[in-house]
Amino acid sequence: MLLSNKVCVITGAASQRGIGRATARLFALHGGRAIILDLDGGQAAEAAAELGEAHRGIACDVTDKAACVNAAARVVEEFGRIDVLVNNAGITQPLKFMDIEPKNYEAVTDVSLRGTLYMSQAVVPHMRAQKSGSIVCISSVSAQRGGGIFGGPHYSAAKAGVLGLAKAMARELGPDNVRVNSVTPGLIQTDITGGKLTPELRAEILKGIPLNRLGDAEDVARSCLFLASELSSYVTGATLDVNGGMLIH
Ligand code: NDP
């Protein structure tokens, strides 16, 4: 039970096959109270109900600062504290560099980067008051290698921004015993990627992955558990690669 009675907020966590949902399930298995935030409040509530009575689902668009502040306030009102935040919500658009229109740039950076900023700003006052907290930011291998299969350059830029933001937050919040770390997943089989891989493309991708398989949402969830829990009590400002060895060179 690595998260006994810890109150854990996870954004974008209602999607059935998603990384956030898998993380919520694992946190609940480890005794945590999972607070599932997502655009669709009904789906978030269903996802939380599936985990049991101790968990909650709340509608929250992370690009809306007031919605983030309200969601955090609701959690504190009911549970008294917030111990963990996983900034997971994100969207991709497979566009080429010259095809990126302002609306594409805004949509992608809004969810990943602005969302990480707003949701973190919403929970930090509570974590500071408690003098403890762990924030995990989901970035992407696309930030590190410049582009991916499903995300365009604007996605790489947004996810690279998340890495910088997380490190800056780690510096500033360390004295309050609030840790901030990032996870950079490789190619993970979720709704973002699922069904879009032809056998030929899959075989080509596997040539570049030493572990010779795509990742599962649970692979990423286990890394989030490590960073959320006291197992990583002296880790802050770090980036944990969860990519099957894709970046070994
Ligand atoms: P999913 O699409 O399965 O889950 C993302 C969730 O975020 C969805 O439920 C989505 O809701 C929700 N969401 C979208 N916009 C917002 C918003 N404004 N506010 C709140 N929630 C929102 O994706 P994954 O599980 O694959 O991805 C999770 C994270 O991991 C993302 O940040 C992604 O960029 C990152 N990642 C994923 C990789 C992969 O291979 N799958 C690789 C590297 C990183 P809705 O469905 O209604 O849009």
TrEMBL record:
Keywords assigned: Oxidoreductase
Query: Could you tell me one molecular function GO term of this UniProt entry?
Result: oxidoreductase activity
Q: What is its EC number?
A: 1.1.1.-
Specify the Ketoreductase domain's residue ranges: 6-186
Q: What class of enzyme is it?
A: oxidoreductase
The record's annotation in InterPro entries points to: KR_dom, NAD(P)-bd_dom_sf, Sc_DH/Rdtase_CS, SDR_fam
Q: Which Pfam families match?
A: adh_short_C2 (PF13561)
Which protein family is named in the record?
A: Belongs to the short-chain dehydrogenases/reductases (SDR) family.
Name it.
SDR family NAD(P)-dependent oxidoreductase
- Origin organism is Azospirillum argentinense
